User: What shape does this take?
Amino acid sequence: MLAVAMPRLWDLKETSLYVEDMPRALKFYVEVMGLCPLVEDERFCALDIAGRHVLLLFLRGASLRPNELPGGVIPPHDGAGPLHVGFSIDAKDLPGWEGQLASNGVAIESRMSWPRGGRSLYFRDPDGHLLEILTPGVWATY
Amino acid sequence: MLAVAMPRLWDLKETSLYVEDMPRALKFYVEVMGLCPLVEDERFCALDIAGRHVLLLFLRGASLRPNELPGGVIPPHDGAGPLHVGFSIDAKDLPGWEGQLASNGVAIESRMSWPRGGRSLYFRDPDGHLLEILTPGVWATY
Assistant: This one.
């Protein structure tokens, strides 16, 4: 009998956050975080991150029914609570991000230095999600 | 006055899911999804995805207090509900993933064909999070 090689994941490509006020969230992610909307409506917005990742914003409670599209059905999902995501940046951009957050009135809640040399800033989006900006040297793989 | 260039995000590197039973979740993500733990304990597990992304599993309710570490403090966060994340795969691996899920008793809840030619499978992890496996051709950027 032949052993069948296990298929592999290439990346985690889509991450979701659930928000109370879509225009408020969109304004934050575009103006403060510098992301570019790929698709947007009142319920849902997809934001491009440097061509590498798609951040999905969903209006809370608005994706609890199957979403029937011409190509199939997206099953229900939803989320509550202050979720956590981390964005990678070049180490040289850390001072620029400190300035970008300060000039937009976003408080830095914490700063972290990691044993591998990486550094993180922690702050909140308008829904209270815990955002992290991290330089290389946080994980064995980053 | 000089215009200051806005700093840029390189990627979204860390995504969090909140789970009720860490050993159960870890078993699923290692054995079914093929991920490799970078760090693990009873409260928290970090899983490597092909050196490109770090999936963080947190025991629900166990990260509601600031986590004081030698290099700083990780502020509180938590999550509830069936969140949604999407993993990218090579298009040639889609049949292999259908087989991998079937052989592990994971039901495919939906299949989607996207206008750009991409295809998605939707299924659930043991906590009910909505997982998607997607081939290229879903987004303008993927």
